[in-house]
Design brief:
It is a single chain. The chain has no helices and eleven strands. It is mainly beta. The chain is elongated and about 45 Å long.
Length: 118
């Protein structure tokens, strides 16, 4: 079984920064990708940033403001969010695509709320 746990959300004002963390644990043989998605009220979940075996991807709206980084030794991924805007308000979910004892798994965290006030 694989668990994914996020932390670091909160309430900030526009222009401020937050750092999200996500750790994957369990019987993990390898991780093919880790990334962050978000879902704002009334909107579909969207990919924010991801690190895959092919490289790093960002949604256009966060390029230049958000940075994703991964600590392979800790099975952890971080999302540094700078210059936050009210439109960044959403629940942020961590995703890990792993090879585990049960085979290939797509594991999700429960989400962490980020609220940016204007």
């Amino acid at each position: 079984q694989v668990h994914v746990v996020e932390s670091g959300g909160g309430l900030v004002q526009a222009g401020e920064s937050l750092r999200l963390s996500c750790a994957a644990s369990g019987t993990i043989f390898s991780i093919n990708a880790m990334g962050w998605y978000r879902q704002a009220p009334g909107k579909q979940r969207e990919l924010v940033a991801a690190i895959t075996i092919s490289g790093i991807n960002y949604v256009d709206s966060v390029k230049g403001r958000f940075t994703i980084a991964r600590d392979n030794a800790k099975n952890t991924v971080y999302l540094q969010m700078n210059s936050l805007k009210p439109e960044d308000t959403a629940i942020y979910y961590c995703n890990a695509r792993v090879v585990s004892g049960l085979g290939d798994l797509d594991a999700w965290g429960q989400g962490t709320l980020v609220t940016v006030s204007s």
